[in-house]
Every structure is written in structure tokens, then in C-alpha cells.
Amino acid sequence: MEERTVAPREDAGTGSALRIARRLAIPLEEIEWRATTSGGPGGQHANRSNTRVEVRFDVLASPTLGPRQRARLVERLGPVVRASAGESRSQAVNRRVALERLAGRLAGGLRQETPRRPTAPSKAANERRLATKHSRAQIKRSRGRPGPDD
Fold first, then answer.
1. How far apart are CA 9 and CA 101, in angstroms?
2. What domains can be seen in the chain, in order of their start residue?
3. Tally of CA atoms within 13 A in the half-sphere of 108 that contains its CB
4. What is the per-residue pLDDT across 76-122, written as a single tens digit (0 to 9) for each?
5. CA 133 to CA 6: how far, in whole Å?
6. Rounded Cα–Cα distance for residues 50 and 64 (Å)
7. What pLDDT does 5 receive?
């Protein structure tokens, strides 16, 4: 399988930086591109054209990321984040899809989950639970064998 490194270029809609969040955009120069043959069915076109695109972002070497962002990404995704696309016959389309996947992975890795604060059930909810429990107990009690007076 032939493999070659592809220089980043501005595709339609991507600009010169990959927007991850409102305050974070990674310059395309920090992203490593690689194009390979996609393989699979498709005859000579699939076997000879470098349409599958893999993008690679080195988290540790990025000057764009702050220390907290870098630490969070390394912890959640590792030191190198990769994404690839090879579904389309067009390298340009696969480039765009691979960039979108990379942006999604990075955004997910940077997302801060709000910690869950435990709450107590309301008084009404507790009363409903106990009423249901009482009615189930009544139903089960009525299923017993009849006593000597019944």
C-alpha cells in the first residue's frame, strides 16, 4: 500500500485553522496529514489513488494548547490524536471529514463534565413510594391461603 505525506492546504470551509471550541483554534500547520490508498472494492481507482486521509495531532508538541488543556487531552486521548476518513472517492472530501472527526475528538476530550450533586427525594416522592409499597404489600397479603375463619 503506497503512502505519502500530504502538505496541509486550505480546503473549502476549513480556513487556516481548525476550530475546536469558541476560544480554541488549532493552526493547520500543527496537524500532520497522510494520504494512502483506501483499499476495498473499487477496482483500479481504489488501488491507485491516494484518497484515504489520516490526520494526526501531537498534543504534547502543540504550542497552541494551554497546560490544562494539554493535560486533559493527554489523560483522556493520549499524546497523539488521530482521525481518518476513506469513505469518499475524493481526497478533498476525505480531508474535510477527517478534520471534522479530529475536531470532534478533541472537543470531546476537552469537555468538562459538571459533577453531579446528590439530591434527596422530595417529601411527596417519598410518600408516593411508601404508598405504592403499602398497596403492593396488601395485594401480596391477600394472596395467602385462606385461614380457618374464611
1. 17
2. 3-110 (3.30.160.20)
3. 9
4. 999 999 999 988 888 899 999 999 999 999 999 999 889 999 999 99
5. 67
6. 30
7. 52
